[in-house]
């Protein structure tokens, strides 16, 4: 928290409101073991690709940002994977989506709003225990469009409607936090990868909900 402002993260944009609530409440994260492996691979993938973006194309890495709304009473903090005139967000995935995930679009859209940029890029990279195995096969000749196996790049324009939807999402979580009552969760396959799953499913593999 920052005084009167509640802090949200851009990576939480349009994600499960219950998960955001539990973070705000200070509950400890308990990552499933299989997710820990993916997190490590994701960090390594960001490192390898980020170094190329920095050294070859002059992008600043891990650019921190804050968007503040005094009217709504909260801030959105973010850390752009790579930034120059426009933001680039890197997502390591075990399988590549045909179209970007809504939450990823919303996250990048926050970065576009902050940067006052007309467009940005989402890069999806297949996770590998040795990221260079994947990244070394990529074609950067038409950068920022990158092509290659196990990789997908999407050029994304700024969306004002999506930004307003993101603000409403965070505001609703803020009101739930102020009431001290968990909001309704989304309850999807993503629950298997959530560090707060133990709070929604205290019996482990059961499906009882509050």
What does this structure look like?
It is a single chain. This protein has 210 residues and is an alpha/beta fold. Helix content is 36%, strand content 22%. It is built from 6 helices and 6 strands, in the order βααβββαβαβαα. Strands 1, 2, 3, 4, 5 and 6 form a 6-stranded mixed β-sheet that branches. Helix 1 (17-24) packs across helix 5 (160-179) and helix 3 (102-115) packs across helix 5.
In N-to-C order, the SSE pattern is EHHEEEHEHEHH
The SS-based structural class is alpha/beta
User: What fraction, in percent, of the residue positions are helical?
Assistant: 25-40%
How would you state the average pLDDT, rounded?
A: 94
Radius of gyration (Å): 18 Å
Shape: globular
Reported for the largest beta sheet, the result is: 6 strands, mixed
Please report the total strand number as a whole number: 6
- What is the straight-line distance between the termini? 27 Å
Output the number of helix runs: 6
Strand content: 15-25%
**Uncertain residue segments:** 205-210
Task: Describe the protein's topology.
Blueprint: E1 6-9, H1 17-24, H2 33-57, E2 60-69, E3 74-83, E4 87-93, H3 102-115, E5 119-126, H4 132-135, E6 151-157, H5 160-179, H6 197-200
Parallel strand pairs: 1-3, 4-5
Antiparallel strand pairs: 2-3, 3-4, 5-6
